[in-house]
Amino acid sequence: MTSPDVAAVVIELREKLIGARIRNIYQLKKNTLLLRIHQTSQPTLDLLIEAGKRMHLTSYVVTVPQKPPAFSTALRKHLRNGKLLGIQQHDFERIVTIEIRNRGDDFRLEVELFGEGNIILVDANNIILQALTLKTMRDRAVQRRESFLQAPSSGMNPMETPILEKDSLDQFEDMQVVRALTKLFSIGGEYAEEVLLQARVSKEIACSALKHDDLTRISKALKDVFSTLELPKLTPCILKDSEEKWVNVTPIKLKKYEKMGCIDFKSFNEALDEYYSKASSEGETKASDDQKNREKARLQRILDSQKASLKEVEKKALLHRRIGDKIYSHFHHLSELYKKIKDQKNHGLKWKEIAVGINEEKRIGEPWTYLESLDAEKLVLRLSIDDVQFAFSLRKSIPANAASYYEQAKKSKKKAEGCEKALNKTLNQLAELKISRISSEKPRKPPLKKRKKAWFEKFRWSYTSGNLLVVAGKDAITNEILIKKHMDQNDLVFHADIVGAPFTLLKTEGKAPPEESIEEAAVLGAVYSRAWKAKFSAIDMFWVHPNQLSKSPPSGGYLAKGAFMVSGKKNFIKKVPLRLAVGIDVKAIPPALVIGAKNSVNNRTNILIEIVPGDLPSQKLARQILQELRNRVEKERRKTVSAVSIQDIQTRIPFGNGRIAKSEKTKKKRTEINNTY
């Protein structure tokens, strides 16, 4: 992102996020954070920050790590549930300052989008608490408990610069004006070229050759270009080349790109999200392909070496066996030769003298013709029989020499078997890599966009097995909203026979609901009532028609927010079990969390468990639930189940605690054991 890009994205983020709260912080990769931001009565927003590269809202599904790294854990400690007070660009640099207040303390998150980038947490006293990368540089240090210093400015702010004067460019002398502008201002070459294009000044002209009129036009162009970095004037777009390939993304339309294709967007955040999501996906594919190519080359080198080694070892095994065979097939001649050499030695000749006389003895014929030479020091004969040359030790007997070669042949054969095994392993690895490449060449699935939430997802909700919507309030405010804004005359209204229960609607769509749907709707109202907190196993519920509810209190009475008067007959459902089924619909895209009565959840997925009132905190319970659901599917589908976030499960657990219900099989086994005794 360029400095103008940062300016545009900050303007949009400021309008959307100020006053919202940080619901959670995830570290997706070493240098990438996701801030999940909650707004009252608005959908949750995801702010993606990749140090040194980008910062924007994303509408795509992201997979968050189950175990948070140390950096995100430190950020959560200080910033989770904190309120966003401000978002500023520092002096038109690629630096964004996010101001947060949490539990009475003020913090800043300094996001550096230049170079390798960094994300730094600073307290109200300007002391560094934590950083993505701790380092010491020539002009400043980013270390814990040190004062925070901003990176040195890279130039003047073009949005605050007055008329450009000649003396401003004198320092650059014969430098091209386009390069001088990039050094003078906090802008990249792209915007420097745009300014000069609009000013009708050649980008290659030297600064010393600029005239007064040139400077006037450049000053006007600077103002014209950068004054458009305001909300009503932004014209974000993704640029395409002649082959429809995406090549750039800009917050405003630039004259230098007017001949290129353009995809318009309503917001720059949306344009950045689309551009980088596609670029990241393609980048991951290219990185994967490059890695596979390197791995293929490495395996091929190993394979070539293994083939050469196998060939050499097999050749040695064959030669050594052949030598052993030659020794035995010429045993008689070798015995005669061996005896004559020993006789010469016994008659007082020295080994060197025997060696000198070998050439003369060769004229006699066999076996002397077998002799090539004699190493007097090592007492080794060099023999050549039928073009097979080998060493023959005079310190060993003829059978011992043959046995030595046969033993070497065995060792070579065993080594060949090891080489062949290693070679086959390498061949298998290459085959697997080829299959992997073929698989990766298939059309890659595009990144998934987050599903837009329906109105009822602000409440507690589920579907019955008859596919009827059930919606329950979360608190007094949502009870009030639910009854006043979303109740239709043909709906059924449920409430627990206990103080502290939500109003629950069964949306009948104007039809008479089946008894099964009524019972399943009652379960949702029951589990989110105070009965769960009190650890009841069941509770009585009742339902009424909408015309039986009134906001008018009895004479002299008062109805609190979220409370309604119920008149007329109440239709009771006795002993509604406090058992909430939690399942994952892996067929949905993306995989969806499903909750409700067991029958209703089982209608959509067979990957489910039930939870009941208990003491296990929601975070631990959510982890247990996800792990249990993963264990109930085949290994290859477990990644799909893990795509559901633990936090989504956690928010659906009544009153923040519970436990996994024992299965019927476990109950039956225990009953059988008890009966046995």
Write up what this structure looks like.
- By secondary structure, the chain is an alpha+beta fold.
- The chain has a 6-stranded antiparallel beta sheet, with helices on both faces. A 5-stranded antiparallel beta sheet has the order 5-6-7-8-9, with helices on one face.
- Mean pLDDT is 87; it is low at 666-677.
- It is flat and about 145 Å long.
- The protein contains 19 helices and 29 strands.
- Helix 4 (177-184) crosses helix 5, helix 7 packs antiparallel against helix 11 and helix 16 packs across helix 18 (646-652).
Summarize the structure.
This protein is of the alpha+beta class and 677 residues long.
Observed structural traits:
677 residues, alpha+beta, six-stranded antiparallel sheet, five-stranded antiparallel sheet, 29 strands, flat, disordered C terminus
Average pLDDT: 87
As residue ranges, the low-confidence spans are 666-677
Oligomer: single chain
Helicity level, as a percent range? 25-40%
Instruction: Give the number of DSSP strands.
Output: 29
Estimate what percentage of residues fall within beta strands.
Answer: 15-25%
What overall geometry do the principal axes of the alpha carbons give?
flat
Alpha-beta classification: alpha+beta
From the N-terminal CA to the C-terminal CA, the straight-line distance is 74 Å
